[in-house]
């Protein structure tokens, strides 16, 4: 007999005569006459109450169960006589797969999120992280669904690369050379015959496919060797990077707005119970914040307009604002939370603070870049129209002192059938952090990688 998911049983809401469920014990209580077990199989926030009569043949097995044990139960699903649940399972048969001793760390008392990070192999069994990781699945599915329905092609870009897309140098090196020898590395003898790194972005490779297939997106792991311990940074995280041929900056901004609204609505539709739980437990205005994003028309202002608004705000910022300085999180939050009270897209940034591949505007000072800013989080999306003009792109690479030879394959797309194109990057974990209301990005990824920490 095939097991049934607790979520499906509770959502159907009807009694059944022969039901098999499998899961983990959340609590057990009772007396010599009857035992009550709260069972959860990970499919839903809600537990299924199991009722075992003291005369049942399996009662002796049930008496030995403790929190954390894995088991199967078979019986009749009937309307519940108790409070807190609509249905319960009257158990006739039990199979215990694995017990849990008194050292099981997830007891009924509350645990801090910091403690749960120390036992990341068990934290998905808690209500909080069950909700978070079900939403993580829903978000990933919603992203693929959005692009598939719009005719985009999913492209797998390399995890190992020899070029630094962002030019920041914060890359993890990959090598097979013996590092303990003390001798200068001879990269000619290394596995790839040259220095190689974990990717910081799949954008450059994604552009190549956009200039062949039209509209593509990447969705994969990226790595930044940035020595930062803030609640918004990880060393290993996932990025979504669409690239679109024949899109200008306005097209890019339109797509970014539609994309964010769509994936948030998808999560709200697929996981309403999980979001309600997180709203009640962690961020009291979470549902209102998500609704505001999906129902608002994003404000659009130039970088120069943003600097003017911030200068006239009367706020005392930690980081002063002036034309040419990058926007900090405090500036982004002021624009979204106080001035506009909705998401904001800032575009046409100074050339000096943006990457080499962004298209230069006619003013010679700015590039066709855009950032989508959200309340609470700040930057959600960073993107631009890409520089399609060979001579301008080559000049910019030389201006920044980048190794031009390393980008010849990239420049070839400007030699052979160049075309206007645009794209953006969305941090998956940062988006999930916004949707769940979690305060620390380490709590929305199964096994966080941060400076000094690569556990599990």
Quick overview:
The chain has 456 residues and is an alpha+beta fold. The chain has 2 domains: 93 residues, OB fold (Dihydrolipoamide Acetyltransferase, E2P) (Beta Barrel), CATH 2.40.50; 321 residues, BirA Bifunctional Protein, domain 2. The strands form 3 sheets. It has an 8-stranded mixed sheet.
Overview of the molecule:
The protein has 456 residues and is an alpha+beta fold. It folds into two domains: 6-98, Beta Barrel (OB fold (Dihydrolipoamide Acetyltransferase, E2P)), CATH 2.40.50.140; 123-443, BirA Bifunctional Protein, domain 2 (2-Layer Sandwich), CATH 3.30.930. It contains 13 helices and 16 strands. An eight-stranded mixed beta sheet has the order 6-10-11-16-15-14-13-12. It has a five-stranded mixed barrel with strand order 1-2-3-5-4. A three-stranded antiparallel beta sheet has the order 7-9-8, with no helix packed on it. Helix 4 packs across helix 6 (249-270) and helix 4 crosses helix 13 (428-436). The longest helix has 23 residues, at 127-149. The chain is elongated.
Layout of helices and strands, plus pairs?
Layout: H1 6-12, E1 16-30, E2 34-40, E3 48-53, H2 59-63, E4 70-79, E5 87-98, H3 113-118, H4 127-149, E6 153-154, E7 160-161, E8 173-174, E9 196-198, H5 203-213, E10 215-223, E11 236-245, H6 249-270, H7 272-281, H8 286-295, E12 299-302, H9 303-311, H10 329-339, E13 344-350, E14 366-374, E15 378-385, H11 390-399, H12 408-415, E16 421-427, H13 428-436
Parallel strand pairs: 3-5, 6-10, 12-13
Antiparallel strand pairs: 1-2, 1-4, 2-3, 4-5, 7-9, 8-9, 10-11, 11-16, 13-14, 14-15, 15-16
Helix pairs in contact: 4-6, 4-7, 4-13, 6-8
